[in-house]
Amino acid sequence: MNKPLILVVEDDAPVRSLITTTLRAHDYRFLSAANGESAILEASSHNPDIMLLDLGLPDLDGVEVIHRVRTWSNLPIIVISARSEDTDKIEALDAGADDYLTKPFSVEELLARLRVTQRRLATLQAGVVNEGAVFTNGRLKVDYAAGCAFLGEEELHLTPSEYKLLCLLCKNVGKVLTHTFIAQQIWGRSWENDVASLRVYMATLRKKLERDPDSPQYIQTHIGVGYRMLKVE
Questions:
Q1: N or C end of the chain, less CB within 10 A?
Q2: Residues with Cβ within 8 Å of residue 178, at least 6 apart in sequence
Q3: CATH superfamily of 5-125
Q4: CATH annotation of 134-229
Q5: 3-state DSSP assignment of residue 97
Q6: What is the pLDDT of residues 55-113, one digit of tens each?
Q7: 132-158: buried (b, 16+ CB within 10 Å) or exposed (e) per residue?
Q8: Count of CA atoms in the C-beta half-sphere (13 A) of 75
Q9: Where do the OmpR/PhoB-type domain residues begin and end (predicted)?
């Protein structure tokens, strides 16, 4: 089975060379682009499976590239940027990025992020997150058709909001979801100024889902940004 086709969007030649050399060494197929317009052209022409995107491009800001690609494609986008502020991460993730890797980064971390994204792609392609399907992740099972969730053989007694939160996380397994995105999806509004309320809902869900909420197995917190459902092997 072929590995995914990856589009590398990076204007810094040494960094682009590091990434493409790493991909080549691990048998990934790849394309490259040095600016935003070329990235959009390559993405529309070759339909890559994953995009690795720098934000500081010479012609377009990377966030603008995300917005434009998202008008016609849901391909996973992993941002690789020197911008390390939470506001930059949140802006990129809210625009539609799936993950955010801060420069300088290790080759091992880049490969790990790619593996996570590949697993998410495989999950989506297998159709296990479609309505009416049963999603499984370790001991967790969510039966979308029946509207219930189980941990092992035990049914989880969830409130409507907790169940919606769980389903949203499961349908985006491996992807960081920002506080704003979660609030808009679950309650139809932004809770930018009331993140504490969302944390309370997440804390009650974790108490029911995690054996040890202090060492979560399923839901990972990205401080100042949001939450991610981890893929349990």
A1: N
A2: 90, 93, 94, 225, 226
A3: Response regulator (3.40.50.2300)
A4: 1.10.10.10
A5: coil
A6: 999 999 999 999 999 888 888 999 999 988 888 988 999 888 988 999 999 999 999 99
A7: eeebebeebbbebeeeebbbeeeebeb
A8: 26
A9: 132-231
User: Taking Cα atoms as reference points, which of 151, 154, 122, 147 lies closest to residue 136?
Assistant: 151
31 residue type, one letter: L
Spatial distance between the Cα atoms of 117 and 184, rounded to a whole number of angstroms? 24
Nearest CA to 102 out of 233, 20, 225 is that of: 225
Q: How crowded is the C-beta side of 184, counted as CA atoms within 13 Å?
A: 9
Give the C-alpha separation, 210 to 217, whole Å: 7
Take residue 61 and report the two structure tokens written for it: 């800001």
- What would the 3-class secondary structure string for 200-233 be? HHHHHHHHHHCCCCCCCCCEEEECCCEEEECCCC
31 in helix, strand or coil?
A: strand
Counting every residue, how long is the chain? 233
